[in-house]
Amino acid sequence: MTASAPPAAILSAYQGAKPPAPDWFRDALARAPERHSIESGGSTIEYFTWGAPGKPGLFLLHGGGAHALWWAHIAPFFADEYRVAAMSMAGMGGSDWRDEYAIAQHAADMRAVADAAGLMAQGKPVVAGHSFGGAPTATAASDPNAWVGRAIIIDSSLQMRHSPGDAERPQRERRFFGSVAEGLGRFRFLPAQSCDNHYIADMIARDAIVEVESGRFSWRHDPNGFTNTKRLDSAKRARSANCPMAMIYGDRSAIMDDEALAHLEKTMPAGTPFVAIPDSGHHVMVDQPLALVAAMRALLAG
User: Which tens digits make up the pLDDT trace of 236-247?
Assistant: First the structure.
């Protein structure tokens, strides 16, 4: 990748229009998912499904501040062989906001969605979680009920722990803007990175915007979702997993430096494969989506 401008500047240049996209991307989005919702932990949780019921299950979990449709161009590649479900965590996407969040509750919501989506029809499903979603994925993998058949952690350092100082952080105000085009112009990745695939950035940004009231738009996610989340030792959960684990990461990810990788090599169960995606930053499904599909297919086949 050679682009150096942040995605916010890239999308702003389109002034609300959709960037041109390759055929494979348009074909993937043409396989539109079904949207569902369930009640879990006192909240309405949205999820999307691809593929026919009765097939082996594949569960996809997004990262922090994101939503289920970050997987909209990835999931269709697995829909012929799997019943695929992607969930929006509470406080993100179309799922309810909560006064307080917890990694353990996100993992419980995952189990509820897996049951509702029919992912257990042929045994235990595969669960894949990106970034912040790696902690609930590791937690689900260590569930004493052992409902996960295999877990794939995608560019997550699993070093997120609860700190007593978290409760002292000031609450953030929700931001508003006057149009979808303005929101697209404000969109940016965290951690900051360049992006060549403008059409993917545009897709996930559009799905992150909601019209709160006529002419007043905002981001769907709770701006205090991370601050108000009760975290846990996700590395400990990974060590106690009841299923095989795998790690996929971007070889130029801002969070997967040598220290993080060394920590993970000590953390993950013995024999865990580590797969580096060439020329990818943290947001692997944005930077190198087809390479991510290939890596996941290889792990699933193995």
Answer: 999 999 999 999
